[in-house]
Amino acid sequence: MQRPPQRWLPACLALLLALLGAGSAQAHGKHSSPIQTFTQMVGPYEIGVTVELPPATPAPITLDVEVPKDIGAATIVLRAAPRGQPFSDANRAEVATAATGEQPIYNATLNLDRPGDWELEIVAKGAKGEGMARVPFTITPAPLQPFSIPLYVSIGALILFMIANIIASSAAQRRGAAGPSWLGRALGYGAFGTLVAVAIFGAQQYTYTTEEAKATAAGFTYLPAGTLITDSGRPHANLALQAAPAPALGQSTTLTITLTDGGTGLPIDDIVTHHNALLHLAVISDDGSYYLHTHPARVAPGVYQVAITPTQAGGYTAYAEIERVDSGSQVLRGSFSVAGAAVAATPAPGLGQRSVGGVQVDVQADAAPRAGQQSTLTFSFRDAAGQPIRDLSPWLGMAGHLMARSADGVIFAHVHAAERMPPYGRPMLVNGVTYGPDIRFVYTFPQAGRYQVWGQFKYKGDIITVPISIEVAP
User: Fold this and answer.
1) Domain check: are 298 and 431 in the same one?
2) How far is CA 261 from CA 138, 239, 302, 379, in A?
3) Which residue segment(s) compose the domain that 181 sits in?
4) What's the alpha-carbon Rg for the chain, to the nearest Å?
5) Cα 120 vs. chain centroid, distance in angstroms?
6) Within-domain flag for 343
7) Strand ranges in 195-341 using DSSP code E only, listed in sequence order
8) Pick from 24, 178, 187, 189: most CB atoms within 10 A?
């Protein structure tokens, strides 16, 4: 008599539950990673908010709020609402910063009750003033992984074979005689074959899930070998720049940047974070005496604002660097003028030593810069006592940033340090990562002439800006 195979059932059901027990949703803010940092000027304060989105909803989102050390006693209110809905009824969290500035990172949570498009509103109020920014993010259901369908079909077939085997065995027991041998063999071989298929597809599913998790943790999208990429990118973006009130020497003015799609003319709201910001803005006077690298607040879809105070009369150029979904980065520019009589500015020093903010900085090139040839610029840091500085901190996901502009303003480049990158993720993962005393940049000046160059680094919570003038030979 054929023995009932009920002992297979617990093991197979356990395998089924293990394979089907994974989460069913993936969270991302227009980006492959569920952890993203948005750095923006919220009024007079540069605030970085790292958002860790949940794998499914309803669930809370975790927020790490990084504030400047000179913010003082301030209140930061965070609210999340579905895109297009008012914030008046949104759940909120409040952060009160310490007056001493000793705590640079604060934590908060907000509850999300549904997937879809959301906005995070950040309102900061303190002694220096107040401001508002809104960050877009999206939570979408995770698509089926490549091996899910064959795995589920195999599991379903295995269950059917198990049920058929149990029915056949029960019928044979009631008759008191063994069933046809061919039927037992067919059901046994079928169950074994589908079990092998479950094991194969389950292993492939596990490998895919593991590699995808590793890529997501590093901030990338995992694509298996042989994946065909068909997305051809987005149209170019257009920039309109307005300054109000009319820029005046020594007076605050607000720059409003409006980004629209070059094809449709509609506001662009598909910008992804790159190097911890949605938009990097460099504002430079024609003579190079005024330089500001900042991150305007997103106040509406496609609209960004930041307040500046010009210190030199004359022409200014604003260079905006963005990256759209599934597209490369773009540098857009706008210009404005500041009324008044310009004062002759002292050119920035060339290569060599200088003191910036109490820090001794020596800038050297591996060879005399020549057009079309790769140059390595090395910044070496020492403290006031002449000791090497080895505790420079990452800023915007890099050891340092360098911006270079030709004297006529036509050529502009944003270069990142050629040093190891800090871990991708929440700010506490970056704490403890240090650089120095030397930080290198590699850049090829495209043509001869004079270039205005600025290196920027973070030291003890302050941003050190090192201006340089470089003559590039033909």
Assistant:
1) no
2) 20, 9, 9, 39
3) 8-21+146-217
4) 29
5) 15
6) no
7) 237-244, 253-261, 280-285, 291-294, 297-300, 303-308, 314-323, 329-338
8) 187
Cis amide linkage into residue 296, ω under 30° from 0: no
* Terminal CA-CA length for the chain: 94
pLDDT in tens, 40-54: 999 999 999 999 888
Distance CA 63, CA 93 (A): 10
252 and 309 part of one domain = yes
Best CA proximity match to 139, nearest among 256, 261, 236, 53: 53
Looking at the fold, whether 244 and 334 belong to one and the same domain comes out as yes
Q: Tokens 């599913």 appear where?
A: 205
Give the C-alpha separation, 363 to 378, whole Å. 6
Compute the average pLDDT of residues 134-153.
78
At 267-304, the pLDDT tens digits run 999 999 999 999 999 999 999 999 999 999 999 999 99
| Listed residue (51, 60, 118, 114) closest to 85, CA to CA | 118
Share of the chain above pLDDT 70, in %: 86
- For position 312, which CATH number holds? 2.60.40.10
Same domain, 37 and 127: yes
- HSE, side-chain direction, 13 A CA sphere, residue 330: 21
Final residue of a structural domain among 141, 159, 178: 141
Q: Give residue 234's pLDDT band: very low, low, confident or very high (50, 70, 90).
A: confident
pTM attached to this predicted model: 0.79
